[in-house]
Design a protein that fits this description.
Layout: H1 2-24, H2 28-53, H3 58-81, H4 87-109, H5 116-133, H6 160-187, H7 193-215, H8 218-249, H9 252-255, H10 262-272, H11 279-299
Helix pairs in contact: 1-8, 1-10, 2-7, 2-8, 3-6, 3-7, 4-5, 4-6, 4-10, 5-11, 7-8, 10-11
Length: 300
């Protein structure tokens, strides 16, 4: 069980770093599209060769199309959500939603199990996520101070809706993540992690392409952030590839919550590098989350 745990922890770290790069980018759609397009082009022969040499049944192709559709929706929601709120505000909600739902799906539908300690760990993580996100802390906050691009919340500063809109969007991202991870768990029965990664890449890029064409900011994004784009092009697909390899070796309900250690990394990156506020409270919450992760990883 040690190897899949290490793979998932590395996956969480990679996810947090490319998320920080996205938050600092000029145009979120163009940045996300760019970091995914590199690996999409490189992995396309892998997918084509595998489908040619190992044809799938009709039902398996239907699951792949569902994965593509979910990834397209996920990427579109993700680009919008990163325009709103602090990284340390929206990231816990995006990741925490799947932390709750994926183990439940694994237990109910995949006949997996969690120990009492595992459930206690999940409760610790969810409690930390709730406080860290700031839900219910107060009903009126200024627009995000952590947005490098200066894009305000959609409803303007100082409004209740302006505060909760990024959180609601992050919740939608989390729901979408829950769905595509569950579908990809089933897809792994029919194809390799590398080929499946290319399928998800295609869906991700397709979902962002209309927004990229409308923005006309692609060249400007490359001029300003070409080095972080190239690094993100490794970290983004690499994060999910590590998770898929771990998923092959361990039950979904046991390892999926461990990936949320990225919440701790993202909180630290947001507070220390992006200079987001409420740093002490968010770091304390990260310790609570880490305790939950340990419970799930060691005794879950």
């Amino acid at each position: 069980m040690l190897l899949p745990i290490l793979l998932v922890l590395a996956s969480g770290m990679c996810h947090a770093v490319w998320s920080m790069f996205t938050k600092r980018s000029l145009n979120k759609s163009s940045f996300l599209w760019s970091i995914m397009m590199v690996s999409t082009v490189l992995l396309l022969p892998v997918l084509l060769i595998e489908l040619w040499t190992q044809p799938l049944a009709a039902g398996a192709y239907a699951l792949l199309l569902l994965s593509v559709a979910l990834q397209a929706l996920y990427s579109w929601l993700l680009s919008i959500t990163y325009e709103m709120g602090d990284l340390s505000q929206i990231y816990p909600v995006m990741r925490g939603t799947s932390t709750l739902l994926i183990p439940l799906i694994g237990v109910i539908f995949l006949k997996e199990s969690l120990s009492v300690y595992g459930w206690i760990g999940i409760c610790c993580m969810l409690g930390g996520f709730a406080v860290l996100s700031g839900i219910g802390a107060r009903r009126s906050l200024p627009a995000s101070s952590g947005s490098v691009s200066g894009t305000p919340a959609s409803s303007g500063p100082g409004t209740t809706l302006g505060y909760y809109t990024p959180i609601l969007m992050a919740l939608c991202v989390g729901l979408c993540t829950t769905c595509y991870v569950f579908v990809d768990k089933l897809n792994l029965q029919h194809m390799s992690p590398l080929a499946l990664l290319e399928v998800t890449n295609i869906g991700f890029v397709a979902g962002l392409t209309p927004a990229v064409l409308r923005s006309r900011k692609l060249l400007e994004e490359w001029r300003r952030n070409k080095f972080t784009i190239l690094l993100g092009s490794v970290l983004n697909p690499g994060s999910y590839l590590l998770f898929l390899f771990a998923l092959q070796q361990a039950p979904l309900a046991h390892i999926s919550p461990l990936r949320e250690i990225g919440t701790i990394f993202a909180t630290l990156l947001g507070v220390l590098l992006l200079k987001e506020r409420q740093g002490l409270r968010r770091m304390i919450c990260s310790v609570v989350i880490f305790c939950g992760i340990l419970l799930i990883g060691i005794w879950g």
